[in-house]
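Service request form, structural biology core

Requester: graduate student, group of Dr. S.
Request type: structure prediction, single chain
Budget code: on file
Notes: please return the result as structure tokens.

Sequence provided:
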Amino acid sequence: MRQRQVSRRGFLGQAGGTALGLTALSYRRVLGANERVVMGLIGSGGRGRGLMNLFLKAKTCPVEFAAVCDVYEANLVAGMQIAGPRAKNYEDYRQLLAHRDVQAVIIATPDHWHHRQLLDALVAGKDVYLEKPMSWSIEQGAEMVSATRRSKQIVQVGMQRRSAPLVLEAWQIVREGTLGEVNLARAQWFWNMPPLAKDRQLKGRLNWQQFCGPAGPQPLDRGEYKNVSFLNWRYFWAFSGGNMTDQGTHLMDVIQWFLNDGQPPRAAVCYGQVYRLQPSETPDTFCAVFEYPKFMATWTLAYTNSYQDGWKIILQGNKATLELDNDGYRVYPDPGRGGKPLAASQQKQGSLPSEPHVENFLECVHSRRQPNAPVEVGHHAVLAPHLANLAYRYATRAVLQPDGKVIFARG
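Core staff response, request fulfilled:
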């Protein structure tokens, strides 16, 4: 295919009309011989395309993308360029799910679509790699867990720290009791983000009504900020829980996993503001506090300052403190009251790649074992940030009841 000789719509039309080249019978023979997994991508934005490339490079088994779906023409074209000329393209994800050769799908759409698309994928008999945060609300998350357990499908939530060797090493250090009793855990994420652009233009057709979907009709422009609800969808409540759930899913999961067997908090409070990223609805600066049975945790984000640029988790025990971030982990023995800070007694440098998480999913597609981040983990990981968002929006203390319901209590 010579891309420069066809228009965007011509390219999509040609690719969408091209057969995969494998009948159902021949596909079964290929699967038996080479363990190939044929996949579809729902949501071919930047994260979706990044996952495509990771899956295509996987060592566990060969992967082929038979179909790509997106409501935005520029994303669809970019996704098709990775998938290749034999793949089909769709604007409606339900058509992709009806593609009989597709065995598994990546769902990399905005948060408000995760619930409906996961449920439909399960009904269609597809295994699913679902980007985080798993759900748009606590209620949706509970339903997603139940639906997955009623099915026979493999669902991995895209929380790659669950498969990262460095994080697993740090988890073992905590489990061995190195830190002693931990009463305070801290999570942080600091980036110095530029203000949102006011007049950004789309690069091709956008089916805005299809994008909004379960959120109902929403404004695309907000005052002088053009196309901001689409190009910066994560900053609006109709589509997302903001950076509280987007970044917080990763960090609060690690804290709960290490200290509370993955279980969510009992209650949360939160304060925040939009200081720079107007016209955002979700705060660009916030601090949440979570109550657990044996410790408390804070989760702080500022997109207006890059001190200690990026994310960090700090677990403070009465014997030692653990720092975990994108550069690895470090353990600092407690110097005792009035003592001088000590150098790290244990440390490991390295990055946190996504490849092991992708490989784990593909292994589970073949073995039918549960993956490292099943839906229960995904649900509990985002439940804490959801609770903090409720506390923030209602300006009160949000309490999680044993039945999963939330009540609000002053003080």
